[in-house]
Design a protein that fits this description.
The protein has a 5-stranded mixed sheet. A 3-stranded antiparallel sheet has the order 10-7-11. A two-stranded antiparallel ribbon has the order 1-2. The chain is of the alpha/beta class. The protein folds into 3 domains: 80 residues, Orthogonal Bundle (Arc Repressor Mutant, subunit A), CATH 1.10.10.10; 89 residues, 3-Layer(aba) Sandwich (D-Maltodextrin-Binding Protein, domain 2), CATH 3.40.190.10; 89 residues, Periplasmic binding protein-like II (D-Maltodextrin-Binding Protein, domain 2, 3-Layer(aba) Sandwich). The chain starts with 13 loop residues before the first helix and ends in a 7-residue tail after the last helix. The longest helix is centred in the N-terminal third of the chain and has 24 residues. The radius of gyration is 21 Å and the shape is flat.
C-alpha cells in the first residue's frame, strides 16, 4: 500500500479489528469466513477497508494464504486488547438479572464455528441463566424442538416451500454447490461417488431426486457429519459433495454432472416453540442470538 500515514483522524473500527483477529487465528480467509458466519468476500472487504483506513499493508497475500507484515503484527497486539476491552465493556453494561434455565439445540456447523463465542458472551451478560446446549444434525435438532426437548434451535433448512416457518428468524442464507476436487473429473462417470453428511443430511434427498430425474445413478463412498471431514474427502478426490458457498476451498471446482440445474439455497434459522413473552430466559437467549448471529456487514 506504499507510504504510511500519520493522519490523526484515523479511526479503528472494532468490527474490522475483530475480523482481522479472527483471520489471523483461523489462518485463512475461508476458515475465518466460516467462524464469522460471513462470506470470504466480506472478510476480504473488511481487511481491505482496514488497510485503507490506516494506510498500511497488514498482510502479504498468496491466494488463500498470507503472512503478516510488521505493521500487521503490531496491529494484531492492539486488536486483541481493543476487541477484548470493547466486549467486556459491552457485556458489563448489558448484564441482566434474569434467571432460569434455557435449552439450546444447534447443528454441527454452528457449533464448530460460532457457538463457543456466542455462548460465552451470553454467560457473561446473563450470569443467572443456566444454558444447556445439545449439538446434532439439523433434522435431529428440529425433532428435539418439536418434541419439547429444547427451547430454542439454530438449524439449517433448504429454503424451499414452507421449510422456513413464518415465526423463524433467518439470520443467514447460503448458496449451495455440488463440488469435486479441482483435479477430479466426476462430470460424466456412469455412477457418481457421493460424499454425504450422513442419513440426516438435508442435501441428499434433493441430490437423489435430481439424479433420478436426470437418469443418473450414485453411490455413497463416505458418510461424515463433520464439515472439515467432507472438505478433506472432496479435496482428496473421493467424490462429489454438496457444500455451502463459504465451505468451498481453492482445491475444489463445481461438478457439472447435472448441467445448469439450480440448487435451492440453504437458510440458517433461529426457531423456538416457546411463545414470546412467556419465558424471560428464553426471550433473553432468543434476543442475544438474533443480535450476535446476524451475518456481518461487509462495509
Amino acid at each position: 500500500m506504499g507510504a504510511s500515514t500519520t493522519d490523526s483522524n484515523v479511526r479503528l473500527d472494532v468490527e474490522s479489528l475483530r475480523v482481522f483477529r479472527q483471520l489471523v487465528a483461523a489462518e485463512g480467509f475461508t476458515a475465518a469466513a466460516e467462524r464469522l458466519g460471513v462470506t470470504q468476500s466480506a472478510v476480504s472487504h473488511k481487511i481491505r477497508r482496514l488497510e485503507e483506513r490506516i494506510g498500511r499493508d497488514l498482510l502479504r497475500r498468496d491466494g488463500q494464504s498470507f503472512v503478516l507484515t510488521p505493521d500487521g503484527r503490531d496491529l494484531l497486539a492492539h486488536a486483541e486488547a481493543i476487541v477484548d476491552a470493547h466486549d467486556r465493556a459491552v457485556d458489563a453494561l448489558q448484564r441482566s438479572n434474569v434467571s432460569g434455565t434455557v435449552r439450546l439445540g444447534c447443528n454441527e456447523e454452528v457449533a464448530a464455528t460460532q457457538l463457543a463465542e456466542v455462548a460465552s458472551r451470553f454467560g457473561r451478560t446473563h450470569p443467572e441463566i443456566a444454558l444447556e446446549v445439545r449439538v446434532r444434525d439439523s433434522a435431529v435438532v428440529a425433532g428435539w424442538l418439536d418434541a419439547g426437548e429444547i427451547d430454542v434451535a439454530l438449524l439449517q433448512v433448504l429454503d424451499t416451500g414452507d421449510a422456513v416457518r413464518p415465526a423463524d428468524d433467518v439470520w443467514r442464507r447460503d448458496e449451495l454447490t455440488v463440488v469435486q476436487a479441482a483435479d477430479a473429473d466426476f462430470d460424466s462417470v456412469d455412477e457418481v461417488a457421493l460424499i454425504s453428511f450422513g442419513p440426516q443430511c438435508l442435501y441428499e434427498p434433493w441430490f437423489a431426486s435430481a439424479m433420478a430425474d436426470a437418469g443418473r445413478s450414485y453411490r455413497r463412498v463416505m458418510e461424515c457429519p463433520s464439515i472439515q471431514g467432507v472438505q478433506a474427502a472432496v479435496t482428496a478426490g473421493l467424490g462429489v459433495a454438496v457444500l455451502n458457498t463459504p465451505h468451498i476451498t481453492d482445491g475444489m471446482r463445481p461438478w457439472a454432472g447435472l448441467g445448469g440445474m439450480a440448487l435451492p439455497p440453504v437458510a440458517f434459522v433461529l426457531r423456538s416453540v416457546v411463545a414470546p413473552g412467556t419465558d424471560d430466559a428464553v426471550d433473553a437467549l432468543r434476543s442475544h442470538l438474533s443480535t450476535t448471529l446476524e451475518a456481518g456487514d461487509p462495509s
